Amino acid sequence: MKRVVFLGAAAATLVQFTKYDLTALQTLGCEIHMVCNMQNGNLSEAALHEYNQTFPQLHWHDLPFADSAAALRRNHQAYQKLLPLLKELKPDLLHCHGTIAGQYGRRAAQELGIPVFYTAHDFRVFHGCLLAERVYFSAVERKYRKATEVFFAVCPEDAAYAKKHLNQAEVVSLPDVGLDCDKYAMPERSREVVRNELDIPQDAVVLLSVGTLRMQKRLRVILQAMARLRNREQLHYVICGEGPDMPFLQKLTRQLHLEERVHLLGYRTDIPDMLGAADIFCMPSRREGCGMAALEAMAAGLPLITVRSHGTKTYAEKGESGFCLKGDLVTSCADAIEQLADNKLLRRQMGARNRAAATAFSDADRMMLLRGYYQKALGRLKATPHKAPFLKAGHILLAAAYNTVRRRDPCSQPNLSVRCAVWRMERPQ
């Protein structure tokens, strides 16, 4: 029996993005191991239980990776535990999900001679990330490109970067997860039933956001826009998801006195029903991998309030899919909410356009495509072992500078000394 190991910095990443991978591997009769940080709090017991019910044969291993380039010591310690684990498991294939897993997993794969796939969620080489972060991960991606048998890009921008700058032999453009359009077009419970359960008036205009609650999602923009539209009592905002920003969003809701019209629901298993009960989907993220939550909303026939940034450019079209925020995001968001709330016909027109556009992301052939790549890789012998040194001193210097900058101000850009360090690291020898 072939053995495949999935590696992610967090359990939430693997649970969210590996459904079709696991389905494909099960049809091949593979033994599957999941290696990740299971203690970071971004995944509820309910979500993990549901996942294990779907895939009962999984073997879980807890390693304390942190999803941050600045956590060098912690991630190196996790890497020291990863190596003996992989030596013990002797996998036929390692599949890394995310940038941190891609960095340390591919290093281990090179050292142990294990074929490796890499899915680049949240590819941190574009605008929307800090300069130091972009340069650091650009160096990492170039360093480990030869260790990657297949590079799965979750959006066209990532695929273009991998082909142009990394010279990857095999680049496959594939959204984060396949989209079952029928599932979102026909929810199990009616709009009226869901609104009654949430204690939301039937004639209310409901805004909805779905996803991991973290800083880059910028959900505070929606809350601040709601505060500006305080006199519009028919507006309600529903937030589904878990994550580190939950306490902040709860506090901000109280500070803005929006407790009666903002509903923080936590993790939900009935997202199609939530979408069916909503009128507008909001996702003002600084960056996305593919932005599957927005695609699901499109499949449900909702207009979007979003930012046309990395990951959303494929489908976020101003005036067609919805409103793309610019400039002062809070003001722009408040204006967009007002226009959509006042114009039911506009919401329907944008929703119909989005439902049609979402079919391009259908999951009909996704599993079979993945199965083909897995079957091809597992049918070959393991790669020749090749020792790869850890990151150069320049990388470590950059990470330390990045850590210092973020500690002082999480939203700041690196100063001149950081940029000089980057230049010294990257200049020709």
Explain what you see.
- The chain contains 18 helices and 13 strands.
- The strands form 2 sheets. Strands 3-2-1-4-5-6-7 form a 7-stranded parallel β-sheet, with helices on both faces. It has a 6-stranded parallel β-sheet with strand order 10-9-8-11-12-13, with helices on both faces.
- It is globular, with a radius of gyration of 22 Å.
- The model is unreliable at 381-393 and 405-429 (pLDDT under 50).
- It folds into 2 domains: 3-178 and 365-426, 3-Layer(aba) Sandwich (Rossmann fold); 181-361, Glycogen Phosphorylase B (Rossmann fold, 3-Layer(aba) Sandwich).
- It is 46% helix and 14% strand.
- With 429 residues, it is of the alpha/beta class.
What is the spatial order of strands in the main beta sheet? 3-2-1-4-5-6-7
The rounded distance between the terminal residues' Cα atoms is 47 Å
CATH class of the largest domain equals Alpha Beta
Mean pLDDT: 82
Q: Which regions are unreliable across 5 or more consecutive residues at pLDDT < 50?
A: 381-393, 405-429
CATH names the topology of the largest domain as: Rossmann fold
Based on secondary structure, the structural category is: alpha/beta
How would you describe the shape? globular
**Share of β-strand residues:** 5-15%
What would you give as the CATH superfamily of the largest domain? Glycogen Phosphorylase B
Q: Specify the helix fraction band.
A: 40-55%
